[in-house]
Design goal:
The structure is a single chain. With about 220 residues, the protein is α/β, with parallel strands linked by helices. It has eight helices and five strands; from the N terminus they run βαβααβααβααβα. It has a five-stranded parallel beta sheet, with helices on both faces. The two termini are about 15 Å apart. The model has no long low-confidence stretch (mean pLDDT about 90).
């Protein structure tokens, strides 16, 4: 990948199992970009718009099967991109998103066992033809982040960091999160270098230094 021109919109996603520290690292990277004079939008999935936040509540707290859960995730994502992410990118902002489509492949594909081919079909269907008043259109290929930072942490180490019992995902067992982690690794192998694995077992300062190094390698930060 190559560095974007100064002022061009940048789209970076943060991935990892619950407890990997995504929120903390998102805030740190936002501060680095703001210090470099960039306008930053921090957002999350599922969520990012009033409708997508309602779909988030359903997905996190209502019982459902894996297919229903997957459809809700893609519905929320399409709304999020059309109404929040695409306008920010068109305005030249840096968009930092906690979770994006890679999470669906990891959690619904790996954790719930939803067929990978079906996820790819839904990704193409939901994440193309995204124009809103001519602001943004991706006619043929799904929108993907320009860089994805995968904060990799073994589930046994992540468990003590979780808030505990808050939603359906946080209550899932170790086998579920092992499958999620394996799916992230599988997704990385097919991402053509877009996904950078960061060892989240290291001390926070070291993790954030690795994150900043990955972003600087793209030419996006001094």
């Amino acid at each position: 990948m190559t560095g974007a021109a100064t002022g061009a919109g940048l789209f970076i996603s943060f991935e990892g199992i619950d407890g990997a520290g995504k929120s903390t690292h998102t805030a740190a990277l936002a501060a680095a970009f703001e210090g470099a004079g960039r306008s930053v939008l921090c957002t999350r999935e599922p969520g990012g718009t009033p409708l997508a936040e309602k779909l988030r509540t359903l997905a996190l707290h209502e019982d459902m099967d894996g297919i229903t859960e997957t459809l809700l995730m893609f519905a929320a994502r399409r709304e999020h991109v059309r109404c929040t992410i695409a306008p920010a990118l068109a305005a030249g902002r840096v968009v930092l998103c906690e979770r994006f489509t890679d999470s669906t492949f990891a959690y619904q594909g790996g954790g719930r066992g939803v067929d990978w081919t079906l996820l790819e079909q839904l990704e193409r269907a939901a994440m193309t033809n995204l124009g809103q008043d001519g602001v943004f259109v991706a006619e043929t290929a799904p929108l993907v982040p320009m860089l994805t930072l995968w904060f990799d942490l073994p589930p046994a180490l992540a468990a003590p960091r979780m808030r505990g019992g808050g939603d359906r995902f946080e209550r899932a067992g170790a086998a579920f999160f092992d499958a999620v982690r394996a799916a992230y690794a599988r997704r990385m192998t097919s991402a053509g270098g877009r996904i950078v694995r960061i060892d989240s077992c290291a001390p926070k300062a070291q993790v954030q230094a690795a994150m900043l190094a990955a972003v600087r390698a793209q030419g996006w930060l001094p």
